[in-house]
Specification:
This protein is of the alpha/beta class and 329 residues long. It is 39% helix and 18% strand. The chain has a domain of 199 residues: NAD(P)-binding Rossmann-like Domain (Rossmann fold, 3-Layer(aba) Sandwich), CATH 3.40.50. The two termini are 30 Å apart.
């Protein structure tokens, strides 16, 4: 059973990845500082509390565990906060990641999967967005993701560190078995906010503008189920294990849904009223973000199992309705 170090394995995507790896014969070893993660979400392997910026701790982990690969899910990801607190984002997302990568090279751990983002592209110039789309991030969060991708390319050439960057569009949904879910504090993602409204934890869901050039005036996004993200990560990792150098891939369903469609689908799934109110647009919200994931389909053999928005929301609702206060911590 190969051991995979999961940086940020107590968080939303990282915890789902741990379960997926364990179910496919791997042993996840979690490193998480629990700033945003939840200890209760770590169930499938050893847990070490700490930071990827701690080089001595990383060396200890690599010496005590025969780590075959590292997956990185530990970036700070609040776009608005990255604008007001850029130092925090460059320190964690870039500087701490660089410490991790340097330590990997020193310890001769040569397989790395990076959780990247469509934020590396910035404002879309074409829809759907392919991996060749221009990279012009419009906020510090997106810039940190692109910087790490560029660092990885240099490390591949200079040190032979094999790596793949996976550019997510909108991660959503929850563990189909209901064991794990999305518990961000604060939460800024649409689907959890809509479901919190269904649970009467919010008076209404805000729609930030209804005058966009879309079919119903609200923004359109490409939602990808967390289980399908996990599948793509494992497929990408196994290509590295076969000796391939790595690449960059978009992860999305290639199909967009508007804010109003998400709210209406949630009403159908939950059977709840879910009040909504239109407010002013948010700065920097593109009208449409839709992925082309043809490259991942062809080269990774990726086949999303939960492409339907109703199924994505249903798995999220199962977890939120059973865990209305989220994890205990």
């Amino acid at each position: 059973m190969e051991k995979v170090l999961i940086i940020g394995g107590a968080g939303y995507i990282g915890s789902h990845m741990c379960k997926y790896l364990a179910n496919h014969g791997y042993t996840p070893v979690v490193l998480d500082n629990l700033i945003y993660g939840h200890r209760e979400a770590v169930k499938w392997g050893p847990f070490i509390e700490g930071s990827m910026a701690d080089a001595p701790l990383l060396k200890q982990i690599f010496s005590e565990h025969e780590i075959a690969a590292v997956m990185h899910f530990a970036a700070f990801c609040y776009v608005g906060e990255s604008v007001t607190e850029p130092a925090k984002y460059y320190q964690n997302n870039v500087a701490a990641t660089l410490t991790l990568l340097q330590t990997m090279v020193e310890q001769r751990v040569n397989n790395f999967i990076f959780s990247s983002s469509c934020a590396t592209y910035g404002e879309p110039v074409e829809i759907p967005m392919t991996e060749d789309h221009p990279k012009n991030p419009i906020n510090p969060y997106g810039r940190t993701k692109l910087m790490v991708e560029q660092i990885l390319e240099d490390f591949r050439e200079a040190y032979g560190l094999k790596s793949t960057s996976l550019r997510y569009f909108n991660a959503a949904g929850a563990d189909p078995e209901g064991e794990l879910g999305e518990d961000h504090r604060p939460d800024t993602h649409l689907i959890p906010l809509v479901l919190q409204t269904a649970l009467r934890q919010r008076e209404a869901i805000n729609i930030f503008g209804d005058d966009y050039p879309t079919k119903d005036g609200t923004c359109i996004r490409d939602y990808i189920h967390i289980e399908d993200l996990s599948q793509a990560h494992l497929l990408a990792l196994e290509k590295l294990f076969k000796g391939e150098p790595g690449d960059q891939y978009n992860l999305g369903n290639g199909d967009g849904h508007s804010v109003k469609e998400v709210i209406e689908t949630a009403r159908e799934v939950t059977g709840k009223t879910i009040p909504a109110q239109v407010t002013e647009r948010r700065a920097g919200d593109p009208a449409v973000l839709i992925s082309s994931s043809d490259k991942a389909f062809k080269e990774l053999g990726w086949k999303p199992q939960y492409p339907d928005l109703k199924d994505i929301i249903a798995t999220a609702w199962r977890w939120h309705s059973s865990n209305p206060s989220g994890y205990k911590s």
